[in-house]
Automatic annotation (TrEMBL):
InterPro entries: Nucleoside_phosphorylase_d, Nucleoside_phosphorylase_sf, Pur_Nuc_Pase_Ino/Guo-sp, Purine_phosphorylase, Purine_phosphorylase-2_CS. Homotrimer. Signal peptide: none annotated. The lineage of its organism: Bacteria, Bacteria division TA06. The purine nucleoside phosphorylases catalyze the phosphorolytic breakdown of the N-glycosidic bond in the beta-(deoxy)ribonucleoside molecules, with the formation of the corresponding free purine bases and pentose-1-phosphate. Its EC number is 2.4.2.1. Residues 22-268 form the Nucleoside phosphorylase domain. It is an enzyme of class 2 (transferase). This is Purine nucleoside phosphorylase. One of its GO terms (cellular component) is cytoplasm. Belongs to the PNP/MTAP phosphorylase family.
Length: 272
């Protein structure tokens, strides 16, 4: 694994992906942000050695390097999920590569179901913490000592220092920002009413099918994570309604403009 990470990083450096400061993962229906990056290098996942290939239509499947809000960024337009059939090491391989290339901060975004009854579809939630409810962990197996410790702790995976900057950014661009705990579940089905109730009882505010594996490899490498969940549908056990994939993607698309503004302002403000 270490050899693969080094080899792919070298390959990307040769292609111009040099010294990124911030790594960004764009979730379901959120490629809009990618369009405002001043692109210096771009590759399709299929042209990058050892990268998996995205199977979800709403994910572009491109690695982009360039400038955004005065920062050198490397961005995944399209990520990988457990439900697609990948194992957790494969899912997180591109993230490890982006961080190995030198990114000092990881920004993740995702589409999520809201289980906090005060939330509304279309809103954005800043992730304060997570619960790993996925059936596995990318840190399983022989530890990659060159990247981080065998037993990383769970302290401030999403450091408050960066949460504060995100909240200030949201105020400045006048976008309401919720805060809460993200729980990752394997999917691909959305939850039953009973499951949404359970997830709420477990202490979560939103539920989705990604992000936690990526945050875990970042924590392993001692890289702070900033997470944004777009609430695309509400999981209210006593008010269950049919939810289509189109509904989820449409709501993600509606929030995209806000997310773009928010992340841009965040990048302008953050110092690394
Ligand atoms: N549950 C799980 N994952 C999701 C949801 C949901 O309701 N919405 C978007 N991703």
């Amino acid at each position: 694994m270490m050899e693969k990470i080094k080899k792919t990083s070298e390959f990307l450096k040769e292609k111009g992906f040099i010294n990124p400061e911030v790594a960004i993962i764009l979730g379901t229906g959120m490629s809009e942000l990618a369009k405002i990056i001043e692109v210096k290098a771009k590759l399709s996942y299929k042209d990058i050695p050892d990268f998996p290939i995205s199977t979800v239509e709403s994910h572009a499947g491109e690695l982009i390097y360039g400038e955004l809000a005065g920062k050198r960024v490397i961005a995944m337009a399209g990520r990988f999920h457990f439900y697609e059939g990948y194992d957790f090491q494969t899912i997180t391989f591109p993230v490890r590569v982006m961080l190995y290339l030198g990114a000092k901060l990881l920004i993740v975004s995702n589409a999520a179901g809201g289980v906090n009854p005060l939330f509304k579809a279309g809103e954005i939630m800043l992730i304060t913490d997570h619960i790993n409810f996925l059936p596995g962990n990318p840190l399983r197996g022989k530890n990659l000592d060159q990247l981080g410790p065998r037993f990383p702790d769970g302290f401030e995976v999403y450091p408050p220092k960066y949460q504060e900057i995100a909240e200030e950014a949201a105020l400045e661009v006048k976008i309401p920002l919720r805060k809460g705990v993200y729980l990752a579940i394997q999917g691909p089905n959305l939850e039953t009413g009973a499951e949404y109730r359970m997830i709420r009882v477990l202490g979560a505010d939103a539920v989705g099918m990604s992000t936690v594996p990526e945050a875990l490899v970042a924590k392993h490498m001692n890289i702070p994570v900033v997470g944004f969940s777009v609430i695309t549908d509400m999981g209210l056990p006593d008010h269950m309604e049919p939810v289509s994939f189109e509904y989820v993607v449409n709501n993600a698309k509606k929030a995209e403009e806000n997310l773009k503004k928010l992340i841009t302002r965040f990048l302008e403000k953050v110092t690394l």
